[in-house]
Amino acid sequence: MKPADFPAELLLASRFYIQLEIKIGGGNEQVDAVFLECQRLQRTQKSIEIVEVSNHQWAKAKSGQMMTTKIPGRATTDNIVLKRGMTHSMSLWKWFTEVELGKWKDNLAEGALIIYDQAGSEQARYDFKGAWPMRYSTSDVKAQSTEFAIEELELAVDAIERTK
């Protein structure tokens, strides 16, 4: 979705927006998903502690001194949580229900989260793979409220990489 297709009042009220591009099951299905909030875009490097006994004696010890070294372990990727105003689109709901019905292997996705500024220029891109929707929820819906209903999608991902 380009800025020309995006509601002007939303662009003016926001400093940026996030587009979700996904290819489900190796296909080229374009999901119409523009979000205004992304939580926990996080990759963590675990540490492994190795304890060795050196041949250096200290104080009155009869054996060597214990030394601890930390080395990098495996990296993990947290789930991605995306939020947007409720739309009439059913594409994310359909993806979620396909996975729920046990067709998750055919519905694994790869894609990107792209952050655009108000002018529609790409500012950052995070490519991901092995994604599937693990939670879909909506905010409370109140007829008398002036607030937008919020749609929330949590994606489990195997890996994410910043490419821009």
When the domains are counted, the total is 2
> In sequence order, what are the helices and strands, one letter per element?
HEEEEEEHEEEE
Query: Which radius of gyration do the C-alpha atoms yield?
Result: 23 Å
Give me the secondary-structure category: mainly beta
Give the overall average pLDDT.
Answer: 80
Largest sheet geometry: 8 strands, antiparallel
What is the fold-level CATH name, i.e. the topology of the largest domain?
Answer: Pnp Oxidase, Chain A
User: Outline, from the CA principal axes?
Assistant: elongated
Low-confidence stretches: none
CATH top level class name of the largest domain: Mainly Beta
Beginning-to-end CA distance, first to last residue: 19 Å
Question: How many separate helices?
Answer: 2
Q: How big a fraction of the residues is strand? A: over 45%
Tell me the name of the CATH homologous superfamily of the largest domain.
Hcp1-like
Number of strands: 10
Helix content: under 10%
- Give the CATH architecture of the largest domain: Roll
